[in-house]
C-alpha cells in the first residue's frame, strides 16, 4: 500500500487486523479481503441467487422449517466458495482439505449460532463483554493455527502427521532445552519474529480501537515524525538482510 502511494496509486486494504477476529468467518472477512470479495461476488452470490437454490428455499420453508432451510442454503453457497479457495492455492489435497476445513467450521458456526444466543440470554451474558471477546479470539487462534499447519504441510499426509504429533510428541522441555533453535531458526530469527509480532500487535490494537496511526503520527512534532520514520526504515533494512550470505526468501504467497 505504501509503495503504491509513492506512485499515486491507492490500493485497498487487504488485511484488517485478522488476528482480532472472534470467529472463523470474521477471520476471512479480515484476511485476504480482495480474494474473499472476489469469491463473494462471483461465486457466493450467483450460487445463492440461482434457480436451484431458490427452489430449495421454497421447498424447505414448506416442509423442513426455516432453520434447516437456512443451513442447506448456506452449505450449497459456501461449498463451491471453499473448494475454489483451496484450489486457488494449488491443486493439492492439503489445500483442498484446508478449504473444506473452513467450510465445515463456518457452517458449524452458523448451525450453533441460535444455541449460542440462547445460552447467552439464559445466563444474562452480554455479547459485548470483554472476557467473552478474549475467549472467542483465543478459540479463533486455535482454529487459525491448526488450519495453517495443514496449509503449510508438504501434502495432506504430512499435515495429518504434524497434527498428530501435537498430542503424541508434545514436550514442554523443548521450550527451555534449546532444541527450538535446531529447527532452522536461530536466535536472530527468533528475535526478529518476536519484535515483528510485538510491533504488529501494538499497531493492530491501536487501529482496532479506531485510531488512524498515520494521522496520529502526522500530528506529532517534525523531529518525532522523522526520527520514527527513519528508525522504521532502518529496521526494515536490518531485519530484511541478515544471516549466511544474506539470502532472500520468497514469501509463500509468491507460489500462488
Would you give an account of this structure?
Helix 3 crosses helix 5, helix 4 runs antiparallel to helix 5 and helix 7 crosses helix 8. With 256 residues, the protein is mostly helical. The protein is built from eleven helices and no strands. Helices cover 70% and strands 0% of the residues. The longest helix has 30 residues.
Strand residues, percent: under 5%
Q: Which regions are unreliable across 5 or more consecutive residues at pLDDT < 50?
A: none
| Helix-and-strand structural type | mainly alpha
| Fraction of residues in H or I helices | 55-70%
Molecular shape: globular
N-to-C terminal Cα separation, in Å? 20 Å
Major sheet summary line: none
Question: What Rg, in angstroms, do the CA atoms define?
Answer: 22 Å
Amino acid at each position: 500500500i505504501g509503495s503504491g502511494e509513492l506512485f499515486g496509486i491507492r490500493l485497498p486494504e487487504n488485511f484488517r487486523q485478522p488476528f482480532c477476529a472472534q470467529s472463523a468467518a470474521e477471520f476471512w472477512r479480515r484476511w485476504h479481503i480482495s480474494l474473499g470479495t472476489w469469491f463473494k461476488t462471483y461465486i457466493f452470490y450467483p450460487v445463492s441467487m440461482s434457480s436451484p437454490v431458490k427452489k430449495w428455499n421454497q421447498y424447505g420453508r414448506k416442509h423442513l422449517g426455516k432453520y434447516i432451510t437456512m443451513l442447506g442454503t448456506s452449505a450449497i453457497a459456501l461449498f463451491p466458495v471453499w473448494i475454489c479457495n483451496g484450489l486457488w492455492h494449488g491443486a493439492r489435497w492439503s489445500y483442498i482439505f484446508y478449504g473444506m476445513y473452513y467450510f465445515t467450521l463456518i457452517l458449524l458456526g452458523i448451525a450453533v449460532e441460535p444455541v449460542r444466543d440462547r445460552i447467552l440470554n439464559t445466563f444474562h451474558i452480554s455479547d459485548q463483554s470483554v472476557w467473552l471477546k478474549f475467549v472467542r479470539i483465543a478459540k479463533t487462534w486455535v482454529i487459525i493455527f491448526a488450519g495453517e499447519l495443514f496449509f503449510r504441510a508438504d501434502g495432506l499426509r504430512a499435515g495429518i502427521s504434524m497434527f498428530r504429533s501435537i498430542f503424541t510428541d508434545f514436550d514442554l522441555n523443548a521450550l527451555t532445552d534449546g532444541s527450538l533453535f535446531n529447527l532452522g531458526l536461530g536466535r536472530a530469527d527468533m528475535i526478529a519474529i518476536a519484535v515483528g509480532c510485538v510491533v504488529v500487535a501494538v499497531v493492530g490494537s491501536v487501529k482496532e480501537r479506531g485510531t488512524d496511526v498515520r494521522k496520529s503520527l502526522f500530528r506529532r512534532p517534525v523531529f518525532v515524525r522523522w526520527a520514527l520514520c527513519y528508525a522504521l526504515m532502518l529496521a526494515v533494512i536490518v531485519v530484511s538482510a541478515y544471516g549466511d550470505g544474506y539470502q532472500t526468501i520468497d514469501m509463500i504467497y509468491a507460489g500462488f
